[in-house]
## 1
Amino acid sequence: MPKVSLTVNGRTVSAEVEGRTLLVQLLREKLGLTGTHVGCDTSQCGACVVHIDGKSVKSCTVLAVATDGANVTTIEGLANGNELHPMQAAFKEHHGLQCGFCTPGMVMSAVDLAKRNSNPSEHEVREWLEGNICRCTGYHNIVKAVQAGAKAMAGAKAAAD
Amino acid sequence: MYDFAYHKPASVADAVKLLGADGEAKPLAGGQTLIPTLKQRLARPTAVVDLGAIKDLAGISVAGGKVTIGAMTKHADVAASADVKKALPALAALAGGIGDPAVRHRGTIGGSIANNDPAADYPAACLALGATIKTNKREIAADDFFRGMFETALDAGELIVSVSFPVAEKAAYMKFDQPASRYALVGVFVAKTAGGVRVAVTGAAASVFRWKEAEAALSKSFAAASLDGVKASASGLNSDIHGSAEYRAHLIGVMAKRAVAAA
Ligand SMILES: Cc1cc2nc3c(=O)[nH]c(=O)nc-3n(C[C@H](O)[C@H](O)[C@H](O)COP(=O)(O)OP(=O)(O)OC[C@H]3O[C@@H](n4cnc5c(N)ncnc54)[C@H](O)[C@@H]3O)c2cc1C
Ligand code: FES
Ligand code: FES
């Protein structure tokens, strides 16, 4: 079986996988990182979004072996100990979730957007989240949360600089 | 998904060798079509040849009135390229409208063109701009490349290396999204090129095609009003739960006019 070594949430990990093993299976089943969800398994819902080398991708549509040497961030990699990441805090504050199933993918997509655009308009947020499906919220509060989270991320970055 | 052997060659020559040695092997680009296909067991390759480590397959260059895009260049990189935005803004906009951000971060131009989905966007740009598709062994004009539903002129084991688009005087692409999949229900790419006006339609039929009546009308005068009274025929067009052939024929006219107005 092929061996794959990569960095996940800052930690170097290695695993033996089959050619057909998906990145999301490696994360959930071998590494126990079950925060990344599988909603559709047909590349449409975005529940499985993680970052590979800083860019949002659907981990159900990437082969694990293809990520050898890559830097992967999952929802578990965002918080700083008990302190929520500003985007997570914004989803909580603005009720950007109900059942929470879509939330890890929503937050990972949103963080990618916020890194490019610290003040996205409602339209820009909705366009960016086209590949993230939520069956509960009606999206309204998700959009509010993403806008607030993006501002908070920019504020936290400015404070750190 | 059935299992397969996995290879990650570092050069086009090695990839071609691996594909030549095993007729059941398949190249893997961004995987945004191939992986869902494998999951549904619609394909069962013995081996997957990942093109992701071949450095010279990715990249964009603009020279001699042509925009050349390497096969492994991601949709997001074409959409964000300052060079493409300047030379062929319609192409950058098209790439930025494919699927969603996560799909654009993985999906590639080579994979899209090799796949020739009847509702894919890039084939319309290739046909309307008169692109040339370069493979490991030859150059193929877009007019000869797209053969039918999911069918191209590529031989077994032949790899797309790059696609060259001649810069157009004016060009625009308008797509009416199928809202669930974001593929084109109907997409129309119009281009005023050195070789004349070309209009390519995707999403409407089994494969991308040129709308010759519109080209003739726009050749007289490149204005939306030139298409008044020019009607696309519904004969042979797709009909499904999202739209009848007549509806698609109507959309072709609407999208073509919008594209001319935007070009
Ligand atoms: C949710 C979703 C929405 C989408 N929406 C759109 C859309 O709106 N418009 C659109 O056009 N597309 C859309 N797509 C498809 C997307 O653009 C794909 O990325 C693209 O069709 C295939 O490119 P890929 O790089 O992922 O190729 P892969 O999936 O890796 O490969 C596709 C096929 O091409 C072959 N291949 C790949 N590269 C080469 C090469 N260099 N030479 C020869 N053969 C090769 C493979 O063997 C395979 O048969 C969508 C996909 C998803 C999952
Ligand atoms: S589980 Fe990956 S997109 Fe739905
Ligand atoms: S909160 Fe339930 S799916 Fe989004």
Note: Strands of chain A lie at 3-8, 11-16, 49-52, 55-58, 71-73.
## 2
Amino acid sequence: MSGPSDFQPTNPALKWIERRLPIMGLMHSSFVVYPTPRNLNYWWTFGAILSLMLGVQILTGVILAMHYTPHADLAFKSVELIVRDVNYGWLLRNIHACGASMFFFAVYIHMFRGLYYGSYKEPREVLWILGVIIYLLMMATGFMGYVLPWGQMSFWGATVITNLFSAVPYFGESIVTLLWGGYSVGNPTLNRFFSLHYLLPFVIAGVVVLHVWALHVAGQNNPAGVEAKTEKDTVPFTPYATIKDAFGVSCFLLFFAWFIFYMPNYLGDPENYIPANPAVTPAHIVPEWYYLPFYAILRSIPNKLAGVVAMFGAIVVLAFLPWLDNARTRSSKYRPLAKQFFWMFVVVCIGLGYLGAQPPEGIYVIVGRILTALYFAYFLILLPLLSQIEKPRPVPNSIADDVLAKSGGKSATMASAAIALLVAGGLLLGGADGARAAEGGPKPPAQKWSFSGPVGTFDRGALQRGLKVYKEVCSSCHGLSFVAFRNLAEPGGPGYSVAQAAAFASDYKVKDGPNDAGDMFERPGRPADYFPSPFPNEQAARAANGGAAPPDLSLITKARSYGRGFPLFLIDFFTQYQEQGPDYVAALLQGYEDNAPAGFTLPEGSYYNKYFPGHAIKMPKPLNDGQVTYDDGSPATVAQYSKDVTTFLMWTAEPHMEARKALGLQVFVFLILLTILLYFTKKKVWANAH
Amino acid sequence: MTTASSADHPTRRDFLYVATGAVAAVGAAATVWPLVSQMNPDASTIAAGAPIEVDLTPIAEGQDIKVFWRGKPIYISHRTKKQIEAAQNVPVASLPDPQPDSARVKAGHDQWLVVVGICTHLGCIPIAHEGAYDGFFCPCHGSVYDTSGRIRQGPAPSNLPVPPYTFVSDTKIQIG
Ligand code: FES
């Protein structure tokens, strides 16, 4: 991509091919001898990291599509079956779901890096605009991917985002109907989103090729912002940039693996473990964290059309950056004012992200408006103005000079990097946590669970007792429809033998058929059968329970959560605390009070529960001391029952948790070793360059 | 890559490069495993492939039924005297895939032939009670099987396989 190469293979067969298709020469000139500025810092490795992430997402995505069913009735279930039954399905799904967040995390760093070092300036305008296009495509892809699991947040996210287009004057409604393929979000919507979600990554890959091509024409920018002039300014891409990128990628994989193996649901919304229900909107619709700043801008403007325009404008304005910022100095290193405003802008963006997750009321709205104004002011007023009035410091004569002059700047860079990563980490969870934290009410006490932490495992005794409690108490109203009897004998579960699981199954009556006469019949359960649900359908469940259908319990510990609040949610990331669900379920089971506090009017047919949101719950107190007999001598108390059944339900929600944590440990040992080796290799290689 | 001298006396640098490359290669190889393994049947498919029981009472002499086990058609034939004799009296050595009839049925249950109804040529389903040997005939490319499900004519290389099964009682078998 940088002119004709003088690469000539020696092997005659390769020579024959090369004369007809000079592909080896192209690779050689683009990724081997390609001159790369000598002074690039680690922020420049995010290009390689992003390429890797695109590859990872395409690969895992193609695989998930082999097992996924894009149908409104089956999508949610098929995702659960991937996680539960497909070999390593849980791993592939975690990689793909967390990978989307990592992809955006990396792209934001990549973009801020371009902004800071002026990488959009002449002659790299087209390169930058291609980048903005990739970013837009990523947003569309990410959004449609989030719809596919067909959980509550998928469904309502799809509804809200597609409704943005209804703001278009005159044609709005028609456009939205066109997008849906129906009169509301439904099966046709899911089908087309699946199709497009499969297509767009390949479009992204195509634009990435153009992006890299444009990069190789203009050459890479660098921290000094001066163009490479002589040989002394550059080093060949391989091995110098290759090994540095490899080291950067390896560090990034450590970060990525932390999510995959230890915090897979940290960035997700618990609401999405509830199957889509067109009749119930979740209390807080919060998009994925990477859309939050734009969501905040949308909500700041009290007019539908203007809000939508502002939201899209906030992205489109990036494409005009090369002409909004006319300053001749590229790198903010030499622009004392631009540098300060850059960091303020970063804070504004993170602030918007935080607000996007808060309920749209009171002070949040006001601050949101101020930050929205600041966001646009940065691009439309500040940058044009700065290029007129700012007096930049002198830039080095050449990249080689810059390298020589560098002495103590490293630690400052590292410190700022660390701060940036930390704050960004805060933004990550701000999304999921924010709205919930505002709910108030007593917080469930954090319990000690045997399965918490990086090496936690299930307590087999608790699982077996919990199964007993479920069978004797909960199962009269609650289903467990994603759990099969065979699971009881699988590793990482309650530890029953295959024969015990089969015997357990045969106690149940299972509907089967039709037989040769065309009739449905009942037969004893087999290991392959799933726990039968107590009600034939949701209407029956509703009718029998005073209007509130008892939820299926398979995923309940992942579908329930509570806000942790700042700064706990940040600390949770490092302590791997992710037991909000179990804490909540255990607390709820023990949170019944005979008499509602004075001043609280309990609706007819409801019971008072301290921890239930709104406190009026339709489920009567399910557990009482002595209700279930334990044969292992554990106390027959409500506290013990709650703990056991919650442990059991954590297992039903994630039967492969032990496998996940065990594999995580191996992966971490490996990645740490690889990273250390790459670090020293990189040092050795670069020693030659000085 | 390495010169003769450094191959004889590996320097520390060479060692570092080789070690890094080797560890990276191990990682790449280990990563491939889950990506391939996911293509195998998943746990629910395996569980659904559990043994099935078939009641033989409704099958009259000279009749056969087709049941499905693991997605494969299984023929269960209630053979007539004539068919059993035909199967037993063939000189085994003359067969393309020599196997005595006794190796293809359960002792004492000579009248029951249980075979996987998938042609060993390219996987079509042969038709029962057809062909020159009153066994099975595959319409795809003309393979002919006898009353013991053994290949007699045509392009198929081997006999119809016998699935694992046992007699639970005289009138009931468990396949798998
Ligand atoms: S498949 Fe039966 S003869 Fe070819």
Note: Chain A touches chain B through 29 residues (CB under 8 Å).
